[in-house]
Design goal:
By secondary structure, the chain is of the alpha+beta class. Helices cover 62% and strands 21% of the residues.
Length: 180
């Protein structure tokens, strides 16, 4: 009978040691989580500083993109205005001259499609006005190396015929003044 009395206390020992191991394990997990919270989770100041840095970086990136987009829109593109060949006789002489000009216009990239559409709609009026500017020019103006006065006159005339001043400048791809 003594053997029977000794058996139940030995069965309780493994159950108590299993509970003890489980309790120690739970305590270790709680202590580990607490330590991780204190050492790995950033403080409120750290979180605030990180958020502020990200916000500043985001704003700077947005400003750079806006600046790039503005620069792209304001970039100048060339548009062909056509070839013009005019024969005329200046008022102060009886000689005949022929002017052959191939023009281009400078326009900002954001207005490129708009001006192409307007040039298609008003092509006849624009070509006529440019021809009249060439014919009404004096011989000295057409012989000028820079042709600045003729450029300004053509630019003003074209912008006057357009809905808005879309042309930023006028240039010559080709220019010849031939005495006939």
């Amino acid at each position: 009978m003594a053997d029977e009395n000794n058996s139940p206390p030995e069965a309780e020992k493994p159950a108590k040691s299993g509970k003890m191991v489980l309790a120690v394990f739970a305590a270790v997990v709680v202590v580990a989580e607490t330590a991780m919270f204190f050492f790995l989770v950033p403080s409120a100041e750290d979180v605030s500083a990180l958020a502020e840095a990200r916000l500043i970086k985001s704003i700077q990136k947005g400003e750079e993109q806006a600046q790039q987009q503005t620069d792209d829109e304001n970039k100048q593109e060339e548009i062909d205005l056509g070839m013009f060949g005019e024969t005329f006789s200046p008022t102060d002489t009886e000689r005949s001259f022929r002017v052959e000009i191939r023009l281009y216009g400078l326009v900002s990239k954001k207005n490129l499609e708009k001006i192409k559409k307007e040039f298609e709609e008003k092509q006849g009026r624009l070509r006529h006005a440019i021809r009249m500017r060439i014919r009404n020019s004096e011989l000295a103006e057409l012989q000028d190396n820079q042709l600045g006065l003729l450029q300004r006159r053509i630019l003003t005339t074209c912008n006057h015929l357009l809905d808005q001043d879309l042309l930023l400048g006028i240039g010559f791809h080709e220019y010849q003044l031939i005495e006939e």
